[in-house]
Amino acid sequence: MPVGRKEAFSIQLLQLLDAGLVWFAFWMASFFRGPIRETLGAYNDGEMSLSQMSWVLYIVVPFTPLALEFFQFYRRPRTKTPLQAFSQLVKALLFMALAIGMMVVFAQISGASRLILGVGGALTLLILFARDRAFHSYLHRQELRDYAKERIIIAGSDEEIDAFLGEVDEEVSGLWKIVARFDLAQRPVDELYALLKEKSVERVIFAARDTEFGKVAEGVEACELQGVEAWIVASFIRTQIARPTFDVIGKKPMLVLRSTPELSWELACKAVIDMVGSFLLIFFTSPLWLIAIIGIKITSPSGPVFFRQRRAGRYGKPFRMWKFRTMVPDAEAQLAKVKEEHGNHMEGPVFKLDRDPRVFAFGALLRKLSIDELPQLLNVLRGHMSLVGPRPLPIYEVDAFEKSEHRRRLSVKPGITCEWQAGGRNKITSFEQWVEMDLRYIDNWSLWLDIKILFRTIPAVLLGRGAN
């Protein structure tokens, strides 16, 4: 469920509160450690105190709220059942326990009282569950108190208002008191002025898709003059994929319809990972580059080491993509003949062949091990590509797209690996299916999705799955 700014702010406040409660839980565990040890008698847990294992707090305090957010602990607080809340808490805390365990094992960090960890984790579970139920109870009391509800007018025809209310989640509408329905097309705006004053309205929602803009503008002006928030339902522009957001150019407010990932800290992290990751990969794979260069020079001395081709980058902007050459020097000139004699194993404008006769023996080995793709890390360093994204296609294949929606895969940076690359590569023979996978990636993009694709690519490359 998309999160509005008000809900996002509430979530951030809850996360700060929960971080403090996590610290309090571990402080309580340290405070009562002595009495618990005396009660347990022979239990030996050393003499470690919380101050001596502060590294645990550096992990659990800031990252527990993030783990809770990942498991959607902060979503739907008004309608969430106790079982759902408890389940989400347990999953998040088990994840944190795994993270601490990995730090101890792999980073070899010593110095942690098992008693403080155990009691602190249990107290964290109980305290956060109690906080969640208290907040749930508070929201229910707000819902029952008529005075506490937000007083709202919805402007539009009866059909438009009914359609809008049918799409609004009960989690949100349960805290509204709709004091009036106002048909902008049938009633003068002067009546809206009076209603705003008479009903002490806090917000007006304009669900007036079929009402002329002039009438909506007058209604917004009425709200503005009385300091009442005006919200306009953006469904007057029908979109299937694009997400509406608002921005400003100069002093002009703009409605933005965006079907690609919005500028965010996640995208900034993706850019950093691309730069740092490509540099480190070039450094650690440099012996493979040397082997590839020597092998190509020995087995196919008449051609260059690198193959460069114009590919379509973001929005179709051409760039030179680098690979280790795996085909005979005149491979491009032989393309038409190979298509005629051997056909195409990929349906659509893209050409793929399981055993391309233009590939020489050492080149086939480079392809099998995906070593031929390594020079694309230079394209990532230059900003033309990303580590993860739809595979870049030659310009002539992009020009042959039969459907305009196929071009939407060009709306993000192309990548070295993608769902297609990590999930089977040449097992997929339909270009439509390939595009569908790319568009699903774009529509559901997250930094975590990129990380999962990178981890799935590793066994696909090591085992040579789908490579030819």
Describe the structure.
The chain is of the alpha/beta class and 468 residues long. It has three domains: 5-144, no CATH class; 146-236, Rossmann fold (3-Layer(aba) Sandwich); 265-462, no CATH class. It contains 18 helices and ten strands. It has helices at 5-31, 33-40, 54-70, 82-106, 114-144, 158-167, 170-173, 189-198, 213-225, 265-284, 286-299, 331-342, 361-368, 376-381, 395-399, 419-422, 431-443, 447-462; strands spanning 150-155, 176-182, 203-206, 229-232, 243-249, 252-258, 306-312, 318-324, 386-388, 415-417. The chain has a four-stranded parallel sheet, covered by helices on one side. The protein starts with a helix and ends in a 6-residue tail after the last helix. The model has no long low-confidence stretch (mean pLDDT 82).
List the helices and strands and how they pair.
Elements: H1 5-31, H2 33-40, H3 54-70, H4 82-106, H5 114-144, E1 150-155, H6 158-167, H7 170-173, E2 176-182, H8 189-198, E3 203-206, H9 213-225, E4 229-232, E5 243-249, E6 252-258, H10 265-284, H11 286-299, E7 306-312, E8 318-324, H12 331-342, H13 361-368, H14 376-381, E9 386-388, H15 395-399, E10 415-417, H16 419-422, H17 431-443, H18 447-462
Major β-sheet profile: 4 strands, parallel
Give the overall pLDDT as a whole number: 82
**Unreliable parts:** none
The run of helices and strands is HHHHHEHHEHEHEEEHHEEHHHEHEHHH
Subcellular location: Membrane
Keywords: Membrane, Transferase, Transmembrane, Transmembrane helix
GO molecular function, one term: transferase activity
Membrane topology: Multi-pass membrane protein
